[in-house]
């Protein structure tokens, strides 16, 4: 490609990381930042040791324990022996090999890996960021090429600082206009998935653009990029603008002094050039997006809070019809039931999708002066990190949650994947701000409805799904 | 990684579509810190009548007699015959580890989920895609013939049926070479260590802030 032809942001990110092109069309891609957590790393370190290899550049590693860690009774430590072993194995591996930063269990900066990296300035624009976790796409909010990898690849990056990759196709998702009150980045994410489907992004790297995206905070952009993987894309990202730069200034691992000026100048290039060509373009109007609720067992099964659960008979495609029938049976819902008539048992506000300060503020704003409904058995607020938790407490948000009947927990993945004690019992229904509503995701037999933090708060108060715009 | 050249193996049929990685190895076993030892929990929810826990000895657990891998005639199977979209769901590499640890070296199916398919090659398992009609014929033959075996010849890209019919299959040349030689990815990449180091040094000079620490 000639130097002058307009490039997409993805082209720029890709080209700046190619170490070597291989004959089969793949390339060795250099990795700038490697995030590590306790679930997908032990076997990678084991493999490294078995092969008597050393890490290539251990200062690229930022590690934390998040998936298994309990979110209450920290004084008791980790009671489940298997979870404890994973976390202790991470401690031991970092002890042996080192890291740029390690935020272990109970550390003041510990938290969900995708919250911890950005808030410490360890995710910088133009980086390649990988982690043994599919929601690594979150870091695309900083114009990074960021995606999840498997454990073999974790070992590969540890040993070589590179990955063998094939270039993706490019998709531009442009959202123009202004979001209406009560509608958030989570609703944009669900609207995109609802419109292109969970396989719509397969094989693509998605760039989110348009005035509605530029108006989002970095937190909102992280929510959106986080969900790119649920649209089937490996990664999603947003170009650098002043919002990106303002967020990073002064963070611990962000550049300082002269380096800062030089870095900012280079970051400003991280946008798609005027006239750059994408393989596919999808356009949405921000005003057309309602607060959304998923009704099924895939994130694409989504509908407006004002809508109804679809009738499987209305799907022309037999595969979709069968999928909808199975989903309704699992979810215990009837065709054409109004979303607002669906009563809930539990509420979960947290996960790498929606556990940042802005998310907690949005939920607290709805909860202030109100109380959860009598039929809500458990409402959890789980901050994404120790820093988020303390910021929220400094703003008095913890008191709002507790007064409303929520439990205010310690940071971690928690009920997003139910690897620790936070989970749904069979048949229980949850309004959740996480990212996956698959069968059993939040506990065997549990029923998950994905929503934004403000909609989760509204559901907590009403005891069923409710339009947040009618509450505040 | 163990090389894969030729395999003459007993075939076990798993007659359902969309077998996801959570069915292959349920999530409670992801808490292990090893990459071996998952074999006893392969298809745990289908194989046993109780709910398996990590670290538990599986020898005395109640088995589901109807599940195919519990049937005596399939003991020692090395080739798994499956349907459409095998290995869908979460990206856990524990799925191929469990298959390998159980003894499977090849999976023959109508189609595979993408990440699982890739993960197989990284672990010395050969996933083979065949047309639906050929898969149907194999299911019929396995159920009709106790001790049904297939010979998989990777060099020639052929599956030889006992009746003498050969089924050709496709495989990417690079993956084939790696499997035939048992090369692991890391060893291959480290052949380029000098180029990586050069790239890294230039990057460090031009954008030092990416290398803090
Ligand atoms: S919060 Fe959920 S999706 Fe995010 S990293 Fe943790 S388990 Fe994965």
Automatic annotation (TrEMBL), chain A:
Its EC number is 4.2.1.33. One of its GO terms (molecular function) is metal ion binding. GO terms for biological process: L-leucine biosynthetic process. [4Fe-4S] cluster binds at residues 352, 413, 416. InterPro entries: 3-IsopropMal_deHydase_lsu, Acnase/IPM_dHydase_lsu_aba_1/3, Acoase/IPM_deHydtase_lsu_aba, Aconitase_4Fe-4S_BS, Aconitase_4Fe-4S_dom, IPM_dehydratase_rel_enz, IPMI_cat. Pathway: Amino-acid biosynthesis; L-leucine biosynthesis; L-leucine from 3-methyl-2-oxobutanoate: step 2/4. It catalyses: (2R,3S)-3-isopropylmalate = (2S)-2-isopropylmalate. Keywords: 4Fe-4S, Amino-acid biosynthesis, Branched-chain amino acid biosynthesis, Iron, Iron-sulfur, Leucine biosynthesis, Lyase, Metal-binding. Residues 11-463 form the Aconitase/3-isopropylmalate dehydratase large subunit alpha/beta/alpha domain. The keyword Methyltransferase does not apply. CDD domains: IPMI. It comes from the Bacteria. It is an enzyme of class 4 (lyase). Its cofactor is [4Fe-4S] cluster. Binds 1 [4Fe-4S] cluster per subunit. Catalyzes the isomerization between 2-isopropylmalate and 3-isopropylmalate, via the formation of 2-isopropylmaleate. Belongs to the aconitase/IPM isomerase family. LeuC type 1 subfamily. Heterodimer of LeuC and LeuD. HAMAP family: LeuC_type1. This is 3-isopropylmalate dehydratase large subunit. The gene is leuC.
TrEMBL record, chain B:
Keywords: Amino-acid biosynthesis, Branched-chain amino acid biosynthesis, Leucine biosynthesis, Lyase. Its EC number is 4.2.1.33. It comes from the Bacteria. It is an enzyme of class 4 (lyase). Pfam families: Aconitase_C (PF00694). Catalyzes the isomerization between 2-isopropylmalate and 3-isopropylmalate, via the formation of 2-isopropylmaleate. Heterodimer of LeuC and LeuD. This is 3-isopropylmalate dehydratase small subunit. It comes from Rhodocyclus tenuis. The lineage of its organism: Bacteria, Pseudomonadati, Pseudomonadota, Betaproteobacteria, Rhodocyclales.
């Amino acid at each position: 490609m000639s130097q002058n032809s307009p490039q997409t942001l993805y082209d720029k990110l890709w080209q700046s990381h190619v170490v070597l092109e291989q004959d089969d069309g793949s390339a060795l891609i250099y990795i700038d930042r490697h995030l590590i957590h306790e679930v997908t790393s032990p076997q990678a370190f084991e493999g490294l040791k078995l092969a008597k290899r050393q890490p290539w550049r251990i200062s690229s590693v930022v590690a934390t324990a998040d998936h298994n860690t309990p979110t209450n009774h920290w004084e008791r430590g980790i009671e489940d022996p298997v979870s404890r072993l994973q976390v202790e194995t991470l401690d031991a591996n970092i002890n042996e090999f080192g890291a740029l930063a390690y935020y272990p269990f109970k550390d003041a900066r510990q938290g969900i890996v995708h919250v911890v990296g950005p808030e410490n300035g360890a995710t910088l624009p133009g980086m390649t960021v990988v982690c043994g976790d599919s929601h690594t796409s979150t870091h695309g909010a900083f114009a990074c090429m960021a995606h999840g990898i498997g454990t073999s690849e974790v070992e590969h990056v540890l040993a070589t600082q590179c990955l063998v990759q094939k270039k993706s196709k490019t998709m531009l998702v442009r959202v123009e206009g202004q979001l209406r009150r009560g509608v958030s980045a989570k609703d944009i994410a669900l609207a995109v998935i609802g419109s292109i489907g969970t396989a719509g992004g397969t094989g693509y790297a998605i760039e989110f653009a348009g005035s509605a995206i530029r108006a989002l905070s970095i937190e909102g952009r992280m929510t959106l990029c986080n969900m790119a993987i649920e649209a089937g894309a490996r990664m999603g990202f947003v170009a650098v603008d002043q919002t990106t730069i303002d967020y990073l200034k002064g963070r611990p691992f962000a550049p300082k002094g002269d380096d800062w000026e030089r870095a900012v100048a280079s970051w400003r290039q991280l946008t798609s050039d005027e006239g750059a060509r994408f393989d596919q373009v999808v356009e949405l109007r921000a005003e057309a997006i309602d607060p959304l609720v998923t009704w099924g067992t895939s994130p694409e099964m989504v509908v407006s809070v004002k809508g109804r659960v679809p009738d499987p008979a209305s799907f022309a495609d037999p595969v979709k019809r069968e999928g909808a029938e199975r989903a309704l049976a699992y979810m215990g819902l009837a065709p054409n039931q109004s979303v607002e008539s669906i009563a809930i048992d539990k509420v979960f506000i947290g996960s790498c999708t929606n556990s940042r300060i802005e998310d907690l503020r949005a939920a607290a704003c709805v909860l202030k002066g109100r109380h959860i409904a009598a039929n809500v058995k458990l409402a959890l607020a789980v901050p994404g990190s120790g820093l988020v938790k303390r910021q929220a407490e400094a703003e008095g948000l913890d008191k709002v949650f507790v007064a409303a009947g929520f439990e205010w927990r310690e940071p971690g993945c928690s009920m997003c994947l139910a690897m620790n004690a936070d989970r749904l019992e069979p048949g229980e229904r949850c309004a959740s701000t996480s990212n996956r509503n698959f069968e059993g995701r939040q506990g065997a037999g549990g029923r998950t409805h994905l929503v934004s933090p403000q909609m989760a708060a509204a559901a907590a108060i009403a005891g069923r799904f409710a339009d947040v715009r009618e509450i505040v | 990684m163990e090389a894969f050249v030729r395999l003459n193996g007993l075939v076990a049929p798993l007659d359902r579509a969309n077998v996801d990685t959570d069915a292959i190895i349920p999530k409670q076993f992801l808490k292990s810190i090893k990459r071996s030892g998952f074999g006893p929990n392969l298809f745990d929810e289908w194989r046993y009548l109780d709910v398996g826990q990590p670290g538990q000895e599986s020898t005395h657990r109640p088995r589901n007699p109807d599940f195919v891998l519990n049937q005596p005639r399939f003991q020692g199977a090395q080739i798994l015959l499956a349907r459409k979209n095998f290995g869908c769901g979460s990206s856990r590499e524990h799925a191929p580890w469990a298959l390998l640890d159980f003894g499977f070296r090849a999976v023959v199916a109508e189609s595979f989920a993408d990440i699982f398919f890739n993960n197989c090659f990284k672990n010395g398992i050969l996933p083979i895609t065949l047309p639906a009609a050929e898969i149907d014929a194999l299911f019929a033959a396995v159920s009709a013939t106790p001790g049904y075996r297939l010979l998989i010849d990777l060099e020639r890209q052929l599956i030889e049926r006992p009746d003498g019919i050969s089924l050709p299959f496709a495989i990417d040349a690079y993956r084939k070479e790696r499997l035939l030689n048992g090369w692991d990815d890391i060893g291959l990449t480290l052949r380029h260590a000098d180029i990586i180091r050069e790239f890294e040094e230039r990057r460090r000079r031009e954008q030092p802030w990416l290398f803090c620490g």
